[in-house]
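Model: You mentioned two targets. I'll fold them one after the other.
Researcher: Yes, keep them separate.
Model: Target one:
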Amino acid sequence: GDLRLECPHHLTSPFFGSSGSGAFGSNDFAFDEDLDDDNRQSIAARYEKTRDSVIFLVDSSEKMMKTGAEDKSSFDIVLELVKNVVQNKLIQGGSNEIGVCFYNTEKAKNSNGFAGIYNAIELDEPDAKMVKELERLSDQKIFRDEIGTGASECEFHRALWTCSAVFSRRKNAKISFQQIMLFTGNDRPNFTMGGAKYAELKTKATQKARDLDDLDINLVLNPINVDGTQFKISHFFADLLVVEDEDGIAKFDEQVALNFEDLKGKCYKRMFKKRALASCPMTIGDDIKIGLKLYSTIRAATKRSPVQLDSRVNQKLTCVTKWVCGETGAVLEDYQINHFYPYGREKVKFTKAEMTDIKDFGPPGIKLMGFKPRSYLKWEQNCKSPLFLRPDEGQVKGSTTAFWALLEEMINLRKIAIARVIYRKASVPRFAALLPVKENEKDPWDDKTGMYMIFLPFSDDTRSLDFPPQPVADDEKIPGLIESTRKLITALVGDVNPESYQNPSLQKHYRALEAMALEREEPEAVEDELVPSDGFQDIEAEIKAIEDIVNEIEEPEPRKRKKAAGRGGRSGGAKKAKVAVVINDADYRTLAENNGLKSLKVAQLKDFLRAKDLALSGKKADLIERIQKYFSDQDAS
């Protein structure tokens, strides 16, 4: 009865329409299979933007140069963050671009000839030279000598204009996610120029911000004030960023950074765009389709694969595979190669096209099979990292409305959906459970509202194991052990989040690469966050209490096995001589005088007693007392 699925072909929600009506746009949506020559193409991997192009626009006025509580200025913190971003982009690789532009400067350097705007680092792929330049400009003395802080403000809309001009000169603008990361502590740029002039410049800045939006350039504000001064977005930037409602303005006012870690967390969250792992439709019935985007929830951090180079010319090598006939040595073409599988003594041959057809289970996609109660989904069935599903309106029109209706109904009925997933062409179909989640009731379309796609195990993956009964601690046999262990576990259990610890092996690897790229003698030291901190010293008492209890336990004598005669012809053989244990009386005497016999194991204590023909019964404390009495009797005689 558990295997029956509730058929979804006749959904009554008005959002779905009737079967075959094409309510979600064209029904002949298909994946581009021409991209799948090697059968490795993932589900409709469609990326609107494939790279990041970021310009850091940094306010260089005297206000930004003032130091705060940690003896660092806002300017110092911003440049430290920019350097951190460049280093991370270097590690990640790819074809991302980064540029740095300062405004409110004494000297000028830009293509438009605007005063007070200095384009310090051209928009380009990050490299070791960029890191060195940022480290050099982080010295305020060097910055003041070469660029300087302006005696008066530049017109703010011209700073945005300069960044827009930089983006317009790039050939890859259409495939880049373009951002201007603005860092400032001044919530009223150009206010000192007077009322009428200020209103005029504010209008120009607002219009320039709209032009940036038309050009698909995202303006991101990162306010920072190390002195704790309030930053009111309503004074100037609310119109530029299109923040209209009072709740949004109040929320943004609370996000002013005060230090490096604060700015880093806020900036990274705003800068790094969530990118879909893939896009595909979810079909319901024969014709209904909902466009979906798939996001990876977690991914293991690994070292990038090394690139093999020709040692003579330092050029990247390309791997080419050729099949050669074993008899003639001739190079074979694809049409000359067949595959076979042994079936008994027969070789069943297949062509490459036939092999492709055999492995083909249909086009990649998600097909909804039915629904089950939410209670049927067990935690242990999560055998693979789940994916997160969100609607894709650009793929199929009406997907957002349909997805929302389906999610709401599944939550209300406490149901999960069972779907058949073909992730790649020629890959094995998998069953997956679609678990609906709704994070924020007030904002149903926040980042955490959607469906988790949890891959279910095959029947071969599920097995029933019989575990032998485990011993249970007995407080009567071992008094105090349960209570002492409970105290130890209570002391060890703390607010530990594994996601907050970096992999020390990866960090050392990246630091070594960075040192070589920057031509440094030694890489920076890496703090191993997995090493226990000094806080573990607080539980030494609990550990000592358990050790004392365990040491008191009398170890049972090993059972002597009876050898059966006539096995393997060994019954008449000579017995193996026992190895005599050498006992040093002086060592035991020293331990007895210094109360150090507790550090020995029970077996070691019994070795001494056995050598002296003394009794071996009793707990560890009895054995220690017997040895001490032995030495005291010797001294008395």
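Model: Target two:
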Amino acid sequence: MMTTTLMTSLSLIATAFADKNLLASSSTTNTGRPKKILTFMISPGRTSTRSMCLLFNKYLHQRCAHNLFGEARVEDVESFVEGITQNYHPTTTTTTRKKARFESALDEAIERKGLTFFTDVPFFMPGMPCRLLVEYPEARFLYVHRDRMEHFDSVLRMHCKWDAPIHCLNANNKALRELSWGSYFQTFCDEHSKICGENPDDKVIKKNNLTSLMSSIWSAHLDEYEQSVRECIPTSKLLNISLGWYNETSETKRFQSFFGLPEENNDSLALRFSRLHINDDLMMPGRRQRMFNNNNNNNESTSRGKWRPLIMLTGPEQSSTLVSGAIRKALNETFEVGIKKICPKELINPACQTSNHRAELYAKCIPSLYRQKAVQMWNTCSSSDLENVFHEANLGRWKFTKDTHLNGWHLKTLHERGHPLFVVFRKPEHTFPASRRRGGGGQNYFAFWRSLISTTPENVRMLPAGADLLRLRNYAKYVFDAIVKQRDHHIFAGTTGIRGIQECLGHFFHFWHLITVAKSLNVPVFSVESLLLSNSRDEALIALKASGACTSSSIGSAETCEAFVDNLREMQSVPTLMHVNVTEIFKDASSFSSVSLMLDREKKYYERTKCAPVLSTVTSWCRDNVRNCATVSDVYSGATVGTTLDYLSPLKQGGVTNIDEIFNRTFSPRGLLLPGGEEKRTTEAKRLQDSVVYLAALVGSFFALAGVARFFRSRKSLEVVQVI
């Protein structure tokens, strides 16, 4: 239904555009040409010239030529532009004067090829718009304005990618671009090695005094050009709009009025253009944007006119692909533009962006293992940087995304922005051992822990609940360091080792922080187990509603929650990405179930990791020393009442209360207890035992010598008394 309506709207737009504006007329101009309604986009490159061309071609059914004359002979173009003063006289028609070669080529493109929209080089050359108006008096002119600083940065990236390796090496093309862009272009071609990065695709620009000088020259060139356009093009034939015109109601209406489009189709038109703009990779921060509601999102925060999509905060290997898939289906969310095919639908994850520009912009605020670097997972960012992320992202108008790396600061900030939110996690015994493949849970949780202990105390305190987080971190580090000092080469044989403990600590702190902040803000939190292990649909719905997720500030209405649960129960019967490192019992998909998966994961957790005693120790200390930690620990470690796995929760078995018990759990009194029940005496245990014996002997000797000395001292005192 929606597709039919959209196609009908686009058809009406195209028909209106063609009938009202672009049909050829039988009348002629004073130049003798058939009167065709043409449009010349005369703003410089990097102002959505390609996107606008695509819009006219694809949706308005008008033929466009983008950069058709980008390699025209510079002499031909110059002679055409200069003809306005040298060759042209008002009484002279094209039938009696000799045409310039460029003019003939342009006429051929219009009359034989049927092109009606022209853009890019050389149509923003100074003098060109005025000459075009003389030759094509019925033409319209479009100028898209952009913030000067953003514009020049984009222009430099384009110069580095295309001009330095191609056009700077061709004398004609270089001269043509110098006329169009300004005199700085020659300097760029001569000095581009001082400006461009080694890989032009990375769009890295080296800002220096040279680029500042070039920017000043270009800005002055642009001022003169815009002044000449204002002087020779009547306002009735010139449309000036901003780069984000499609996000401003007033500018969208001006665009429609100028091109004779029906106003009732403005949202369809703007949505189409915004998607073309995303693919054109021209979005930049710092411009005003409007979000109009043209979807069926049930969240009230969206229907109020502000774009506030639902965000799920989770972690790697938390069944998030399964849960987010069920949510997307419930919300009829299909958006996936600009995301790498190998990535899950994490729309603001820097590592998942196809555009390097978006990736670098998002990485300023959104943690990830972007470009294989273990970035700081616990840093904050400026409010302007975060706004830029959503200014960039909102052009897609998506309704929902998940993210696996956001911390409690992000949760609090998103809550303040008015986003509907929820936190979902899988308990550690169902997560570990985690995959250590590229981008896997092991790699990510290890980064969470390592970046936490490397974060300065000042930066930790800046986070919500930062003081408590710092104290808990310091204690966990003390526990971890004690284990490292005690360990032997064979102590962790057959397990994930010290690295595995760090991964589990990363998981604990990631979700401890999210849950702590979420509870303080009444943001819903629930475990995957509470839904996947429920005995019925009603039981799952009860658990979901009990978390507070079925409201406008989270997943949405009761109907949305019901659709989500139905989708989840249907999808969980088939193995998905959540089944990492499972045993061979699932090679036959018919034997798979969520309960069997969780039991298999728990078996591996206790056999192959040493996480349980460490997490129990940290959690027990947290309960006794950190406010509200008992509630957070119950959420994190306690199984949902009524599930088949209650008895397996480590805290149900009794917490470890002091650090000595870590070693009692990890080490056998006679040595390391390895899987399978076989006891092997380790050199560490032997050294420890021998050390105790030596220490006892030494202490005994000390006390014996002290006793002898005391005896002789007393005897001597007695003899002195007798003499007296």
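Researcher: Noted. Anything on target two?
Model: The chain is about 50% helix and 5% strand.
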